[in-house]
Prior knowledge:
By secondary structure, this protein is α+β, with helices and mostly antiparallel strands. Helices cover 11% and strands 27% of the residues. The protein has three helices and 17 strands. A six-stranded mixed β-barrel has the order 1-5-2-4-3-6. Strands 11-12-8-7-15-16 form a six-stranded mixed β-sheet, with no helix packed on it. Strands 10-9-13-14-17 form a five-stranded antiparallel β-sheet, with no helix packed on it. The longest helix is centred in the N-terminal third of the chain and has 26 residues, at 29-54. The two termini are 28 Å apart.
Amino acid sequence: MTDGSAPSRPTPAGDAHRPSRAGRRRAPTGPRRWLAAGGLAALAAVVAVTLAVRGGAAPACAAPPPRALPAGALAAPPLGGTVHTGKATFYDSNGAGGNCSRPAAPANRLYVALGPDEYAAGASCGGHLDVTGPKGTVRVVVMDQCPECDPGHLDLSAEAFARIADPVQGVVKISYRAVVDPPLPGPLTFRVKEGASQWWFAVLVGDHGNPLRAVEVRQGGSWRAAAREDYDYWLIPSGAGPGPYTIRVTDAYGHRATATGIRMLPGQVQRSTVRMYGAPARSATPSRSPSARPGPRPSVSATPSTTAPPGTPAVVDAAAAPPATVAPVPAGCG
């Protein structure tokens, strides 16, 4: 079946395809013990309410969720270059790619975990922040969630923290802002999730620079919107057919790019031929000595080198296709 409709047999449950918790940001043991105690208290409260209801008494109101947002406030990633203030701590992902499902930590190991309000159910994933502390400023990519962090509390990688403060301090005051249109390492990448098929589609988009707002897959002459999961995969539960796929990506500032030739290759990172914005930087023409004999000019490749640090997952090129148009769109467009 190629129309993407649900098959007659049961569709695989979405939870069966969620990534394992290995490598995800976890709360330290202290809060876990507190949560366990809170769970017992909550169970006792439920029993008490049940008995009260059976006895005819009105039940007590449920306790509000911890760190509830003010009325009307929404969880959202830092955007627009607005300067925020707060504090920073540090941790080590041990090479894992965090709650944003990156295949691995970035090679420079400069990353950050945000609290639930700024992580915003994955909406911050892949964005960049400039963080300033007592010793200077460091640029980090949002890779993870810090469950116990309040708004303004950034949990940096140990390497990033060392750029802005002495690690002995442990906690320091900081300011930070989102980076708008940071330099891109290359064209967009796509990773179809393990377990995907024509009946269940999930894709992770990489190298987009700014936080993403929408991912769509073209099927049957129209665009189907994918839903972002909190682990940063974009999901179409009923599938998108067998592929190859044309995928349209829109970021938080309205940049839009359309990639073609993305294949059903679960678990493999595929490099497209389009960038989210901008153009690849060209190297300067080397100077020549007056006495040197002119030779052929060096070629300049529009595609960056595929050389990667040891342990980085292999990247394959998407099927060759004419480059798609990259054009900004108004931030309010669907």
